[in-house]
Amino acid sequence: MRIAMIGTGYVGLVSGACFSEFGVDVICVDNAVDKIDRLNRGEIPIYEPGLEGLVASNVKAGRLSFTTDLKTAVHGSDAVFIAVGTPTRRGDGHADLSYVYAAAKEIAEALNGYTVIVTKSTVPVGTGDEVERIIRGARPDAEFDVVSNPEFLREGSAINDFMRPDRVVIGTEAERAREVMRQLYRPLHLIETPIIFTTRTTSELIKYAANSFLATKITFINEIADLCEVVDANVQNVAKAIGLDGRIGGKFLHAGPGYGGSCFPKDTIALVRTAQDAGRPLRIVEAVIDINDTRKKSMAGRIIEASGGSVEGKIVALLGLTFKPNTDDMRDAPSLDIVPALIAAGARVRAYDPEGMEEAKKHLDGVEWCENAYDTMEDASVVSIITEWNEFRALDLKRAKTLMKEPVLVDLRNIYNADEMAAAGFRYSCIGRPGVAAG
Q1: Ramachandran category for residue 320: left, alpha or beta (phi over 0 → left; psi -120 to 50 → alpha)
Q2: Which is catalytic among the residues 28, 228, 263, 370?
Q3: What per-residue confidence (pLDDT) applies to 438?
Q4: Domain boundaries defined on the chain
Q5: pTM, 2 dp
């Protein structure tokens, strides 16, 4: 089989590379000439563990290629995937579908023979209907079906999520399109992956419902963590105990500074707007968005409080800037709220992130960028872990204490043990657990 993947962002590049690993001939298309040139030189524009090797091996095998020529890519493809960005639209919070609709118009002009057009981008209910209308209007003679096939890729583990997914969702009622999609995902039958066929609108809603539910779990445990701090309880024990209930599950029950990234913030907002337009407001999701935004803005206050109530003139060391580990993605990361607030409070901010430094520099001003964790700590009055990269999980605390002006650590990811921190002589502050004074 042959497919064209329109868009070489996170979803398009990972999906294209993984389909080619299944043995499908894949042409990835992008109108950004510099990005395609980089990909053709073997340079990967995003950080995702394992992706560079996967791309290289499939390019070498002749199954994966990159081009700016959409017409040639679409010509002769069994399926064309739309995997372009759908950012939050300024002003009203709806998903910006301009890139999706522009891709649909270009695809329409290039169609020759029956083609399945697949929306892989995260899109609101009814987008597939509009894509079909656009293509039908431009090419009433064309043979095609529009299918919804949402992605469920987690940054940092996207390749495994594609190769061994919990489920595959396909939205179409056209049997001919179903058969094409069955063939594309046939390799997953070997591992008995559930493949859910449903209507197009249902498929579109599934993606938003899934992400909004996960965002709600994160926000719920964060609020429980706040309560734990007041009543002297331990949120990690609470999360473990309730997570052992099969009806709840332990994933996404880790208290922290709030969710961020490319999906949860924009998808929750888009779902809320869709529901409001439909006259069925989603009060829970609305509250989740508000609580999460407030939480991210409050994290700088925790760091200031741990530093004696003021960071004026003090060096504050920050470890991790991306919204999660194993990615260079800075979109809606808590650090984007934390850093400006600390600088506004008079702090001298030093920061280090293993993979996100270059991306962070595009969004944050007034920061001293460091080469490693220990560089950030020199003469610092407080160090805070914002992102739980593995290299921060076993810091040399003796060395850190020697470097720092004051041994204060604010652990926004709860990766350290309070007793160990006390033994190391640190004043330790964390989320939803009892902290410790310096021993």
Answers
A1: left
A2: 263
A3: 46
A4: 2-198, 199-439
A5: 0.93
